[in-house]
C-alpha cells in the first residue's frame, strides 16, 4: 500500500527529503548541505551536480532511516530555491557552468541596459516583476553571453534551461534518457519571461533577451493529474513513483500553511524572508514595491495569484555572523547572545549584501551597521541582527497593507528562524499583531507533498489539508506604540544610509 508522500526540498543551503503521512505529519527525513561558492563579491554559485548527488543521497537515507522503500510512496513533490538558474546539455546532463543563485548580482549590468528603454518596470505589466538581478531571465542571458559552449549548444538546440525543480525532475525521470523537461507555473513566474495572464513564455521578452524558446521547459500546473514522469527503478527511490507536484519554496510554504483563501498570508524566515498574500484568481498589480506572482495552480483549474515581498538576507545574516565573524558557533546561539542585553544599544544592521529587495528594489545599496558607540557589545550586535529580519518584514507588511487595502491582523510564520522565541516576540511587537507558528513547522516541504498528494488523490481536497493545520504557539504584541514607532523610524534612517553605495 502506498502510505506516504515524498517531498524533496531543494533549498539555498541544503537539500532535504521528507516523507509525510495522511495527517501531514513528518515520518522520516534526511538532509545534506551543499557548498556556497563565491567567485567574487556579489557573485553566488552552486554546483548543480553536487545538488543532484545530494538529492539522491537524502532520498536513499530517508527511506533507510524510516525502514521504508520507494514502493511505499504514492507520489513525489518538489520544492526549490527559486530563480537559481542552470543551463545544461540535454545529451549528457552536464551543466555548462555552475548554477547562478538567486542572490547573485552579476546580471545587474544586463538589467540596467534593459531598463534604459522603459525603466525598471519595463516588463512588470506582463510578468508582475521589476527588472532585477534576482530573476532568472537575465541569468540565462549572462550564461549565453559568457559561456561559449552554452551559446553554441543553445544555437544547435542542445542546451536546456531550468530552475532547480526542473533540473531535479529531469534527472528523476530519466535525465539524458528521456527525462521530463518541465517547470511549474510558480517557478516560471519568477523568470521574468512568463506572461502572468496566459501562463505562457512571452515571445517578445524572449526576443529582447535573445533567449531561444527551445531551451525553455514546458510550463505545467503545480499539482498535475498527468504525471510529468515516473522515477526510475534504478534511481534513488528504487521504484516507479509518479512525479506530479512542484512549487517554488515560498509558494510551497503558502500551500503548507493552508492559505487557500484570498487575504490569507504567511511569512517564511529562511535564508531570505518572504511574505506572501493570497489574492485569488486575478493578478493584483503592486504600486508599493511588491511583486505579483503565481501562488499555485491545480490541474484543470484557474491559477491562484499572490502578492509577495522578498528580502534577500534574513537567516543568511545569522550564518554570516557565524561563518565570517565567528561570534557564534551555531545558529541557535544568536538568541542566547542577544538575550544578554535588553535592547539593541542604539544600533541597526541593514543587511543589504546583494542590494535591497522589496519594497525598495535598490541594487545600489550595501550592508551597513549604524549607531555604533563605545557602549555597544556583542549582545547588541546579535540583537540588531535579529531585529533586522523583523524590521524588513515590517517594511513588507506595510507595503502589502497599502496594496491590498486591508491591514494584516495576524501573521502565520514558518521557516528555520521561527524557533527563535526572541525574534518572534520582537516581530509581534514591531508589527503590533499576533504571530502564529503551526505545529508542523516543515511547511515548505509539506506544501510540495500536498501538491503531489492532491494530484494523485492521496488527499481528497484542500479542506482535508486545512484540517491538518494546527497552531503550536502564538506571540502577542507587548511593546507600547511609542517605542514601536521610535524603533521603526530609526530603522528607516538606517536604510537611507545603506543607499547609493554602488554607482
What does this structure look like?
This protein has 503 residues and is of the alpha/beta class. 34% of the residues lie in helices and 20% in strands. It contains 16 helices and 21 strands. The chain has a seven-stranded mixed sheet with strand order 15-16-14-13-19-20-21. The chain has a six-stranded mixed sheet with strand order 3-2-1-5-12-11, with helices on both faces. It has a two-stranded antiparallel ribbon with strand order 4-7. Strand 2 and strand 3 form a beta hairpin. It is globular and about 65 Å long. The N and C termini lie far apart (61 Å). The model has no long low-confidence stretch (mean pLDDT 93).
Distance between the termini: 61 Å
**Chain-averaged pLDDT:** 93
What integer value in Å does the Rg equal? 22 Å
The helix count comes to 16
Proportion in β-strands: 15-25%
- Major beta sheet, specifics? 7 strands, mixed
Count of distinct strands: 21
Residues in helix, %: 25-40%
